[in-house]
Amino acid sequence: MKRMLTGVIVFLLLACQPKTQKKDLISWLPQESAVVVQSHDLKSLSENISSIDFVSNNEFKLKKEVQENFGFLKYLDSLGNSLIAFSDLTEKNYIFTLISENQPQLKLDSVKNKSVERLKFDGFEIDKVNLEDNIIFTSRTGGIFLAGNSLEKLKTLLEGESFLSDAEFQKAFKATDPKETSIFIRHDRIGGKFKEWFPATDSTLADFASWSAVDLSHKNGSLNFNGLSLWPEKPSLQHIFKNVGSSANQIARVVPATAPGFSSFGYKDFDQFQQNFNTYFQTKFSEVEKEILKNVSEIGLINYPSGKLLVFNNIDVILAEQNLARFSGESKEFRSAKIHQFDNPELFAEHLEPLISPVDLNFYTILENFVIFSKTEEQLQNVISAFVNKNTLAQQEHFQGAFEHLAEASNILLVTNNEKFKELIKEMSSEEFGNELSNLSFDSNKLSAIQIVADRNFSHIHGIFHKSEGSLATRNTEQLLSVKLDEEILGKPVFFSNHNNNQEDIAVQDINNVLYLISNKGDIYWKKQLYGPILGEIKQVDILKNGKFQLTFATPNRLEVIARNGNAVKPFPLKFKDEITQPLALFDYDNNRNYRFLITQNKELFMYNSKGRSVKGFDFNRAGSKVLFPPKHIRMGNKDYILVAEESGRLNILSRQGRHRVKVNENFNFSDNEWFQYNGHFISSNNLGELILVDENGNVSNQNLNLTQNHKIDATSNLLVSFSENILKIRDKKLNLDFGLYTEPQIFLENNKYYISITDLQTQKVYVFDSNAELLPGFPVYGTSGIDIANIDIDNSPEFVVKGDKGEILIYRF
User: Fold this and answer.
1) C-alpha to C-alpha distance for 279 and 303, rounded to whole angstroms
2) Which of 198, 202, 424 shows the shortest CA–CA distance to 303?
3) Other CB atoms within 10 Å distance of the CB of residue 287
4) Residue 653: CB partners within 8 Å, gap ≥ 6?
5) pTM of the full structure
6) Helices marked H in 404-505
7) Looking at residue 92, what is its pLDDT?
8) 769 and 775 Cβ atoms separated by less than 8 Å
9) Are the C-beta atoms of 449 and 249 separated by less than 8 Å?
10) Residue 614 gets which letter from DSSP?
11) Which of 68, 315, 346, 543 is most buried, judged by most C-beta within 10 A?
């Protein structure tokens, strides 16, 4: 029965004989065609598009409509060269017409819900085919197969009426490759649909061209397109670039990697450029504008939800500085770049339209050959930070990979950082379209780009919807936050656990001894005046054993324990008449929150419990000479050791009770490095640059590391890091850093990974390496202190906090 029904359907398709006899496909295109797709293999096209990650991983209205309207294609075979014309795009249900040179057969054995009804008209017949409640209409004439979702449209064509007759379309059609899939866009017919989707935009898409045509190619998950755009009769954006020449696209060098996107407009011949403005848009530049723009080869806009930034790529940056000096007001330094007030904010306000819409020009900065204008200082600070940290779009692998498929120079370049751009475009979209955008994930298809290169009365088009090769886990470091305090920072900021949201806040002290607690979003919870500078780093405790954390530290005369609301936890603070000479030593022997607070005053040691009471039974109350470092608790196996190093060169290795547990007979010439546990030994170094190793029996050995006198070391139980002059050694690997003034190296363990950090205070660069001595992607970045590392939020990426400019705290994700 199924075979009989299939045969009947094939017979009915072959029996349809309309009046009109046209042999070429394009002669059957409807007059109202707005978009035309040409393909020699529609099935392969459908499969290729479906294999793009963005299409396969998302559900959206257009995808659903295409699947419903073209679901019948999967039941057709032998469908050769074909055209699909889309019309009436502004209607709720658009109309499509399929025109193919072959008569396909319908494979319907697997279709449960199917029917065919023959509709007879004067001189021709149309079959109404219902496949799984999806209705299409088909007919045939002279070897041409017609199908569509509109009976009236098919009738009109078969009656020999309303065919597309457009010389511009003929030009575009001849320029495409018949062996490729091509798309033809009729701009005056799609402008309305674009305005429907993006009602808040002032786009001139409808006037941009008469027709645009591109050949599509699909490779490795990317969609590439190349073609041309035919200029319309009336002035358009493209006319501005007539005979001006193209210029290299370089603005991406100052576009932050986090920017949603940017546009670039390039020219070589400024005289022709300004003449085109005058000829086509009756716009004349002022003499000042001429001076500035004649020295510019590329004009750009960086797009942000908070506003656009205007960028000039200058031929001679010294001349650019001189041209802008007359409008330059007060300036501030930020990351070694100057941010100037701009005293002529109305400059270029109108004369660059339609190239760019007016931009507020209140501030500007200069980076290499680029002048960047902005509405706010903060916008320029973001650009400068990304530039200093080498975290610009041009330095991203996905950008570089995309531009291998594009031209080096162009007149117009539009680039979108897809995941971030959708939030920007949502503000210009209709509510329905905007909500759909929010739910889309671009995942590996991170970047899109379109290039326009002007020629004689037409332009070349190059573009890509790019899929990044390899793992997207190759992340660059991203600045998340900048917080400005009232005063300069003392010491370095540290993370402090927030038990309310299981994230991390920031604790820091300024030079006036004011302590701040700041959220990881930059909100200042509170400020607290202290009675002196914090010695060493702030530590974290839970003295009430209820999962709520407190800050604890020593100042020169106090031991503080402060709750996260900023109040002291009673009976703290403990006050001392004599000066505290070392940072607080905090012990939690069994990780059961029975804390021991050890205070050092020159030779004397005082131990307290969580209730602020003196701990009885700790016998080591006084050393023979001044204590050099905070006493250190080390656990080996099931034994606890407390190490106290003295100025005399003596090393005391004590038990919990303060009794000598390991006798060390040798005195040392201590360096400035504390004691650590490493490979089953207690280790430090001497001022000759030798590593000192002491085992649990008190046996001493030295290892020559060839370190200079002012070396630094850090260690864990299985990792040793040293720094001497400019050589950073991680395990057995040596790294030659640039000569500078460096902080001591720090080892962090986060998410079961070791990170080693060091900061060059002269060049203000923070370096972070892994335990294999590999510099992490995106480093070095700007910073002026040591850092603290933690996973501060709900994602899986670690962050670090560091000092920035005076009074500034920075958080980076890496």
Assistant:
1) 29
2) 424
3) 6
4) 641, 642, 643, 660, 661, 662, 663, 664, 682, 694, 698
5) 0.76
6) 418-426, 431-438
7) 67
8) yes
9) no
10) B
11) 543
